[in-house]
Amino acid sequence: MEIEALQKQIDEISVFLYQNREQEAFGKIGELLGNLKKVTDALLCVDSGNEQEIGLFISNMYQSINCAYKYKDVLGMADCLQDYAMLATELYKKGC
Protein backbone atom coordinates (compact mmCIF):
# COMPACT_ATOMS: atom_id res chain seq x y z
CA MET A 1 0.00 0.00 0.00
CA GLU A 2 1.32 3.42 -0.89
CA ILE A 3 0.96 5.27 2.38
CA GLU A 4 1.67 8.70 0.90
CA ALA A 5 -1.31 8.29 -1.45
CA LEU A 6 -3.51 7.40 1.52
CA GLN A 7 -2.29 10.45 3.45
CA LYS A 8 -3.06 12.63 0.42
CA GLN A 9 -6.54 11.11 0.25
CA ILE A 10 -7.08 11.85 3.97
CA ASP A 11 -5.99 15.46 3.44
CA GLU A 12 -8.23 15.88 0.38
CA ILE A 13 -11.34 14.57 2.11
CA SER A 14 -10.57 16.59 5.25
CA VAL A 15 -10.38 19.77 3.16
CA PHE A 16 -13.76 18.95 1.59
CA LEU A 17 -15.22 18.51 5.08
CA TYR A 18 -13.63 21.69 6.47
CA GLN A 19 -15.05 23.59 3.48
CA ASN A 20 -18.54 22.15 4.09
CA ARG A 21 -18.42 20.22 0.81
CA GLU A 22 -19.99 17.16 2.40
CA GLN A 23 -21.33 15.60 -0.80
CA GLU A 24 -17.88 15.47 -2.36
CA ALA A 25 -16.37 14.10 0.86
CA PHE A 26 -19.09 11.51 1.44
CA GLY A 27 -18.64 10.29 -2.13
CA LYS A 28 -15.02 9.42 -1.37
CA ILE A 29 -15.06 8.48 2.30
CA GLY A 30 -16.11 4.86 1.72
CA GLU A 31 -13.03 4.21 -0.42
CA LEU A 32 -10.86 5.99 2.14
CA LEU A 33 -12.15 3.84 5.00
CA GLY A 34 -11.54 0.71 2.93
CA ASN A 35 -7.94 1.76 2.34
CA LEU A 36 -7.53 2.78 5.97
CA LYS A 37 -8.79 -0.62 7.11
CA LYS A 38 -5.85 -2.25 5.32
CA VAL A 39 -3.49 -0.06 7.34
CA THR A 40 -5.22 -0.69 10.66
CA ASP A 41 -5.36 -4.45 9.99
CA ALA A 42 -1.62 -4.41 9.31
CA LEU A 43 -1.01 -2.45 12.52
CA LEU A 44 -2.91 -5.07 14.51
CA CYS A 45 -0.69 -7.80 13.07
CA VAL A 46 2.58 -6.14 14.06
CA ASP A 47 4.24 -7.81 17.05
CA SER A 48 5.49 -4.69 18.80
CA GLY A 49 4.59 -5.31 22.40
CA ASN A 50 1.98 -2.55 22.14
CA GLU A 51 -0.83 -4.62 20.67
CA GLN A 52 -3.37 -3.64 23.33
CA GLU A 53 -2.66 0.08 23.01
CA ILE A 54 -2.78 -0.09 19.23
CA GLY A 55 -6.07 -2.00 19.37
CA LEU A 56 -7.59 0.59 21.70
CA PHE A 57 -6.33 3.43 19.50
CA ILE A 58 -7.84 1.89 16.36
CA SER A 59 -11.12 1.16 18.13
CA ASN A 60 -11.31 4.73 19.40
CA MET A 61 -10.52 6.08 15.93
CA TYR A 62 -13.38 4.19 14.29
CA GLN A 63 -15.79 5.02 17.13
CA SER A 64 -14.97 8.73 16.85
CA ILE A 65 -15.39 8.77 13.07
CA ASN A 66 -18.67 6.83 13.35
CA CYS A 67 -20.02 9.13 16.06
CA ALA A 68 -19.17 12.25 14.04
CA TYR A 69 -20.81 10.70 10.97
CA LYS A 70 -23.90 9.66 12.94
CA TYR A 71 -24.44 13.21 14.17
CA LYS A 72 -23.52 14.79 10.83
CA ASP A 73 -20.59 16.58 12.50
CA VAL A 74 -18.51 17.26 9.39
CA LEU A 75 -15.87 19.26 11.27
CA GLY A 76 -15.61 16.47 13.81
CA MET A 77 -15.13 13.95 11.00
CA ALA A 78 -12.40 16.09 9.46
CA ASP A 79 -10.68 16.42 12.84
CA CYS A 80 -10.85 12.66 13.38
CA LEU A 81 -9.33 12.01 9.96
CA GLN A 82 -6.55 14.51 10.55
CA ASP A 83 -5.81 13.34 14.09
CA TYR A 84 -6.49 9.61 14.23
CA ALA A 85 -6.21 8.49 10.61
CA MET A 86 -3.05 10.49 9.96
CA LEU A 87 -1.47 9.12 13.14
CA ALA A 88 -2.40 5.58 12.08
CA THR A 89 -0.61 6.11 8.76
CA GLU A 90 2.45 7.45 10.57
CA LEU A 91 2.48 4.42 12.87
CA TYR A 92 2.23 2.20 9.83
CA LYS A 93 5.19 3.96 8.21
CA LYS A 94 7.26 3.46 11.36
CA GLY A 95 6.17 -0.15 11.76
CA CYS A 96 4.95 0.66 15.29
Description:
By secondary structure, this protein is mainly alpha-helical. Helix content is 84%, strand content 0%. The chain has 4 helices and no strands. The protein has helices at residues 3-18, 22-45, 51-70, 74-94. The chain starts with a helix and ends with a helix.
Give the gist of this structure.
With 96 residues, the protein is an all-alpha fold. It is built from four helices and no strands. The model has no long low-confidence stretch (mean pLDDT 92).
Indicate the mean pLDDT: 92
Derived structural class: mainly alpha
Proportion of helical residues:
over 70%
Please give the oligomerization state of what you see: single chain
- The ordered string of helix (H) and strand (E) elements is HHHH
Tally of contiguous helical segments: 4
Low-confidence stretches are: none
The best one-word shape is: globular
The share of residues in extended strands comes to under 5%
Question: How many DSSP E strands?
Answer: 0
Compute the separation of the termini in Å: 16 Å
Rg from alpha-carbon coordinates: 13 Å
Query: Could you give a short account of the major beta sheet?
Result: none
List the helices and strands and how they pair.
Layout: H1 3-18, H2 22-45, H3 51-70, H4 74-94
Helix pairs in contact: 1-2, 1-4, 2-3, 2-4, 3-4
Keywords:
96 residues, mainly alpha, 4 helices
